[in-house]
Design a protein that fits this description.
The structure is a single chain. The chain has 292 residues and is an alpha/beta fold. It has a domain of 152 residues: P-loop containing nucleotide triphosphate hydrolases (Rossmann fold). Helix content is 31%, strand content 24%. The strands form three sheets. Strands 6-7-8-3-9-10 form a six-stranded mixed sheet, sandwiched between helices. The protein has a four-stranded antiparallel sheet with strand order 2-1-4-5, with helices on one face. The protein starts with a helix and ends in a 22-residue tail after the last strand. The N terminus and C terminus are likely disordered. Bound molecules: adenosine-5'-triphosphate (ATP) and magnesium ion. Adenosine-5'-triphosphate (ATP) binds next to helix 2. The site of magnesium ion (MG) has 4 residues, from helix 2.
Length: 292
């Protein structure tokens, strides 16, 4: 990362929490989140974990103002996020949805440029600052070499990095990223986690990241939030909440949890041969069985 990149990634840490109070959220008749309280600690990297369908994206979308809660509210710096203008929120809070779609034919530079929309108004058009924010975000996400290519001509992992660049170009204090490591090879996943860690610890950003890789989560998170069936079951530092009973309770996963002597962080090794009979599973069972 260049010095210039470092500078543009830095944000003011002097901001209040992002907080969901008594959130109830659902689709049609179905309630997914029922009376959930949630807050994000400024300056921390929080990773949200939980089984498929437990409500992670629903929670993230609610915090991001994409979904409206039926009851409860989301406060950004003490003000209801749904009562704030879209651009004002978008200058504070950047969101990477789980499965973003780029319009056909859009180039990488144009996609990343969309991250600057909160700063455009009738009287303030594209500026040098926008241009340099886009350039630096593409450098940070390592997509500069694709700048002029159509997004839809890239591989899945290359495309994912373009979306990350778009969110970085938004230069927001808050970043909510839903499965940003999807499609990335392991080395690029690690590079991304290092970038996210540095955004928090060196540049004052606050991040909420949904991941499925438990070990990546335990290695990089300041705080883990473990969710099951629409509820927050465990929350805390990886050393405090990443353990065998919690993994069995939340995922129905039998795993051995060990400690990495290099950094003191826990990691897990799944036990072979557990199939669907794993003890302690209490997610939302699908009733499906896999037969070969
Ligand atoms: N637009 C929608 N309409 C109806 N039901 C939905 C909608 N979006 C999500 N759901 C349902 O809400 C529940 C929670 O979905 P959500 O996307 O929040 O899960 P998730 O924890 O993000 O899962 P995953 O790990 O698979 O991304 C699921 O049962 C899902 O089928
Ligand atoms: Mg999801």
């Amino acid at each position: 990362m260049t010095d210039q990149t470092q500078h543009s990634l830095t944000c003011n840490t002097d901001h209040g929490p992002l907080k969901g109070e008594r959130l109830s959220v659902g689709y049609g008749e179905t309630v997914i989140l029922d009376d959930v309280d949630f807050h994000l600690e400024p300056g921390k990297l929080t990773v949200l974990l939980g089984p498929n369908g437990c409500g992670k994206s629903t929670l993230l979308k609610t915090l991001a103002r994409t979904l409206s809660p039926r009851t409860g509210r989301v406060l950004l710096d003490g003000q209801d996020i749904h009562r704030q203008p879209t651009r004002a929120v978008a200058r504070r809070l950047g969101v990477l949805p789980q499965s973003p779609n780029a319009p056909d034919g859009l180039s990488v530079r144009e996609l990343v440029g969309l991250g600057r929309f909160p700063y455009q108004t009738l009287v303030r058009q594209w500026s040098r600052r926008d241009e340099s924010a886009v350039t630096r975000a593409m450098e940070a996400a390592d997509v500069s070499q694709f700048a002029d290519r159509p997004v839809d001509s890239l591989s899945g992992g290359q495309r994912q990095r373009c979306w990350i660049a778009m969110v970085l170009a938004q230069e927001t204090q808050w970043l909510l990223l839903d499965e940003p490591t999807t499609f990335l090879d392991l080395k690029v996943q690690v590079d991304l986690m290092e970038l996210l860690e540095s955004l928090c610890h060196q540049h004052g950003r606050t991040l909420l990241v949904v991941l499925h890789d438990l070990n990546l989560a335990a290695a990089y998170a300041d705080e883990l939030v473990l969710m099951r069936a629409g509820r927050i079951r465990y929350r805390g530092a990886p050393v405090d909440v990443f353990n065998e009973p919690a993994l069995a309770d939340v995922f129905g996963l039998r795993a051995q949890v060990l400690v990495d002597p290099a950094n003191g962080r826990p990691f897990c090794v799944p036990v072979k041969g557990q199939g669907q009979q794993a003890s302690g599973y209490a997610g939302r069972p699908t009733g499906a069985t896999l037969t070969l």
